[in-house]
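WARN retry 2 of 3 for item q-0093 after timeout on previous attempt; input resubmitted unchanged.
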Amino acid sequence: MCCLRLWILLLVNRLECHRVDKTSERTLAVVTMVDKAPEGLLEKVTADEVNIGLGYVCVRNRIGGETYEEALAISDQLFQTHPLLSRIDESIVGIHVLAQKLVQIQATSIARNLPDIVKKINDKLSSCLSELDKMPKKLSSVADAMTAFINLIGVSKESLRKILIRGEFDDYQNEKHMHCTARLVEMLNQYADELHKANESDPKSNFLTEEIKVLEEAKGISLPDFLPHNVFLSILQGRVRGISSIPIRFVEQVWSYIGDVVISVLMHDTQGYYHLHMATRRAGRNLISKMKERSINWILEIVEMEKHTDYTCNPEYVSEWNRLMTKQNAFIDGVLKDEQRPSKMDIEGIGEIELEGLRKYTHVDLSQAFDMKMRMTVYWKVVLRRLVDCMALHLQLTVANLVNKEMEMEIGCELMGANHGVGIERMLEEAPSVAVKREKLNKSIKKLKDSKEVVGKIMDILMLVSLWDSYNDQCSVNF
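OK item q-0093 returned
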């Protein structure tokens, strides 16, 4: 019965151990209370029918008020004198054997796992040190803060020069929004298209009717067939007023885009310094607002100049006007004399126009209006070209000034406290999140270094133990 109970207990324990050690390689079977059921024990622990990897150790439990020394003496006496238990090999009996095995198992396990532990400690330590190194340098003096400020602004200026002026975008290969020169050219082309597609730029719109009406109202006591200058200016001013909102919308669109790019770069470069980060955001927004206002004032002045007077030194104006005027007689004949009375006519430089509504006017009316129309058609191309070319040059200049001059001055004023009383000393204060992260990394680094030192000492001890065991084994062989 005792033998059966022992077998059942061993089997139950084997099944329990299998849950955490499926191969039983790490399992040590400790048979307790051997003095209560010694029958058949020798056969069971010798045969090892349940495949215990680390073998068996048989022990007698301490009873009642026995001291450790008393229990150890009684156990030694039991395994030496008991008729059944004394037959079990002394290498697997007793508390001292169990203690030695446990120490040996633990040492073996530590020795086996130490290299992997050391590697993991080193990897984690390297990771923490690298992360700490990537964090912004903790500033300890105003001089450090000023140096950091100058360096960060220098980095931001160079980044903006690359993407806004030189058209380099190697830092933003997959971010087309940051390919600035290409995006600005696209916007400039769209601006030019919108100007040319405006109703005021269509030469067929109300062909000659506006010119005739203005000429009628401008009549005075003067020589016949004389084109008054104020008529041309009146028509020109109406056209310029009609397209004046397009340049303003374009300026607002461009500075909105440039503002996004500038703020994005500044925020990226200053993210490690909380107060500089916040001051830079404010300064960047204020600067873009100022630059946009300047550009709007500039374009309003340009528009006003175009309305104020008409002038160009481009020789193509006269040659183009003369070329178009060669079609005047054919046009008037087509309207007034052609017996077939065509309803439409195609005029070079203008396109196809309706003729029926023009037949009520006289030869003089049509002649003066045609001349005025051709002059305006040619000159309007000059106006549109100026509005586009000047805008392109203005953008190039203002963006260069923004990056090379304005940005550093604006951020410097903001940081020095011109608006919010924030001195550069505030740069010494880290953002709470950065401070917490830095402290956490420093604590982790200290713990990892301490752990590395402890593990190093353990490895040294194990090496000495291994050398000592080898020495003893050699002595035993020699002996």
